[in-house]
Amino acid sequence: VLPSGFLWGVGSSAYQTEGAWDKDGKGPSIWDAFTHRKGKVPRNETGDSACDGYYKVKDDILLLKELKVNHYLLSISWPRIMPTGIKAEQVNEKGIQFYNDTINSLLENNITPIVSLYHWDLPQVLQEKYGGWQNISMINFFNDYANLCFEKFGDRVKHWITFSNPWAVAEQGYETGEHAPGLKLGGCGAYKAAHHIIKTHAKVWHSYNSTWRREQRGMVGISLTSGWGEPVDPHSQTDRDAAERYIQFHLGWFANPIFRGDYPEVMKNYVGRKSAQQGLGTSRLPTFSVQEKTYIKGTSDFLGIGHFTTRYVLQKNFPFLQVSSYHTDHDLAELVDPNWPAPGPKWLYSVPWGFRRLLNFIKTQYGNPMIYVTENGVSETVQCPQLCDEWRIQYLKGYINEILKALNDGVNVKGYTAWSLLDKFEWNKGFSEKFGLYHIDFKNKNKPRYPKASGVAEGVRRVLQSHRTVTIPQVENWHRKAMDTCSATHQHLAADSLITHMEMVTEIVLPTVFTLCILICIVLLIFYLRNHS
Asked: Bigger pLDDT: 468 or 45?
C-alpha cells in the first residue's frame, strides 16, 4: 500500500512538447540546430511545433485534472528565458512570463510543479562559441541560469531537478553523436561532458543551499536514468561483476560522485587500464581533486530515477583497440530474454522485477536516499493510433507493483511519474515513438489530444492514489470502462481524421483544381483565338 503523501504524476520536457521554437524571443537550442540538419531524424522531422504546448497550457492542464495527478514534471527551456545562454547578454521576459503562467496555472489546479532545469536543450550559441559541455565555462553559465530560475520561480517551485538523464547528454551527444549536438568524440567526449555536468550540478546545489534554501525551503536533486543489469549466470562471479559494471557505468557514473564523493572504483580501474594500453599518460576518465570530491559529495536532496527496462549481462573482453569507446571500456555484453514482452520499440522490454532490484541497489549503495521516480513508461512504434493500449496499462501496473514491493523492502520512494502525458517528439526518433497517455493527431494543424485507455484507466490511477486494497470486480469494472472509452475515442478520432482530410481537400485540392481549370481555359482560349485570327 502506498504511504500517505506519495506523489503520483506525469511528465514531459520543453523541447519535446512546447514547439514555438523561434517565437516570443526564444533563442535556438542545439536540438533546433540538430533537427534542422537533413538526415538526423527520420523523415527530417523536427520539434519546431512539436505538440504546440506553448499555446496549449490550459488545455493540457485540463488533461492533468482528468488524470487526477498530484504533480506534473516539466522542464524549462534555457534558451527560451536566456536566448544566448548568457545572463549578462539577454534575459527574455516573455519566456519568464510563460513559465510563471504555467506554474501559476498548475498551482491553481492543486498540481505540484516538479521542474527540471535541463532536459537537453542547450542554447546553440554556447555550443558554437564554447563547445557546449566540453567546456568548463558551462558551469558558471548554467549556475547563472539556475539562479535566475530560483529567483523568478522558487517562491512557488519546491522540487528542482538540475539535469534530466545526463547519461544521454554525455554519451549520445558527445560519444555516438546520435543526439544533439551530434559530436563523435570517441572515448573521451562523454567522460569530459559528464565531468562538467557533475561539477555544474554541485555548484547549483551549493548556490541554492547558501542563497535560497532558508527563504524558499525547497529541494534540489538530479534525475538519472538507468536500466537494471542482471547477470546471465548468477552463480558466475565474472557475470556478477559484469552486471555490477553495467550499473556503475550507467547509474554510478553520476550517482557515485554525488552520493559517495568520486567515480566508481570499477570505472576508474577499467578506463584507466584501457587508457594505459593505448599509451595515454593519463586516464580518459577525468579525476576530481580532494577539494572537488568534498564539494560534490552530498549535493542532492533527493534522487530522481528514470527506468524503462532491464538487460541480462555477461563478461565480454574487447580486443585492444586504438580507437577507444565508452562502449568497449566496460567489457560486457547485453542480452535480452526473447520471452520478455516487447510491446513497443526493440530496446524497451517489459521486465518489472528489474525495477525493484534497481531501487534496492540504490538503497544499499547510496544510503537510502529520498527517491522520486521521474520517468517510467513504454512507447508504441506503429503509425496508426493505438488508443486501446491495454499493454501499456499492464506495463505500468507491473512496474508500480514493484515499487510497492520496494517500499516494503524499506526503499524511500516518495513519488512516481508516468512518462509521458502526451505523445511527443522523441528526439532522434522523431514522432515514430509514442509514450503518451494521450494521443496527438500531428497531421491536424490544431494538434487535438485524445485519451488512450491508459489515460483513463481508473484502475491504475486509483490503485496509486488509494491507501487501501482494491477488489478484483472494481479493477474489472475500471478496465471495462477504459476499453469502452478508448473504443468511442477511436471512432471520434476516425471522424476527426475524415474531417481533417475533407478540410485538406477543401483548402488545398479544390483551389488547385480550380486554378488548373482556369489555366486550361486560358490555354484553350489562346489556341482558339490563334486559329481564328
From this structure: 45
CB contact at 8 A, 245 and 266:
yes
For the chain, report the end-to-end CA distance as a whole number of angstroms: 94
387, 439 in Cβ contact below 8 A? yes
| 225 strand-pairing partners | 306
Residue 2 in any domain: the answer is no
Contact 425, 15 (CB under 8 A): yes
Nearest to 80 by CA among 127, 145, 125, 27: 27
With a pLDDT cut of 90, the percent of the chain lying above it is 79
In a domain, 1, yes or no: no
In a domain, 184, yes or no: yes
- Cα–Cα distances in angstroms (integers) from residue 348 to residues 58, 339, 377, 380, in the given order: 32, 13, 9, 10
Q: Which of 26, 121, 21, 144 is nearest to 80 (CA)?
A: 26
Q: Spell out the SS3 assignment of 38-93.
A: CCCCHHHCCCCCCCCCCCCHHHHHHHHHHHCCCEEEEECCHHHHCCCCCCCCCCCH
Joined grid coordinates for residue 104:
501559476
Domain at 90, CATH number: 3.20.20.80
pLDDT tens sequence across 441-488: 999 999 999 999 988 764 455 545 544 444 445 445 555 655 666 666
| pLDDT bucket at 496, cuts 50 / 70 / 90 | low
Quote the pTM value.
0.90
Q: How would residue 427 be classed by pLDDT, with cut points 50, 70 and 90? A: very high
- In the chain, the amino acid numbered 386 is Q
254 belongs to a structural domain: yes
CA distance 423 to 50: 10
Q: Count the neighbouring beta carbons within 10 Å of the beta carbon of residue 58.
A: 11
Q: Which residues contact 418 (CB under 8 A, 6 or more apart)?
A: 9, 10, 11, 376, 377, 396, 437
- Please say if 375 is a catalytic residue: yes
Catalytic position from the list 45, 175, 375, 402: 375
pLDDT, one tens digit per residue, over 379-395 is 987 766 779 889 999 99
Alpha carbons 432 and 448: distance in angstroms, whole number: 18
- In 3D, which of 83, 48, 82, 63 has the Cα closest to residue 12? 63
Note down the domain range covering 131.
7-532
User: How many domains is the chain partitioned into structurally?
Assistant: 1
Gyration radius of the chain over CA positions: 25
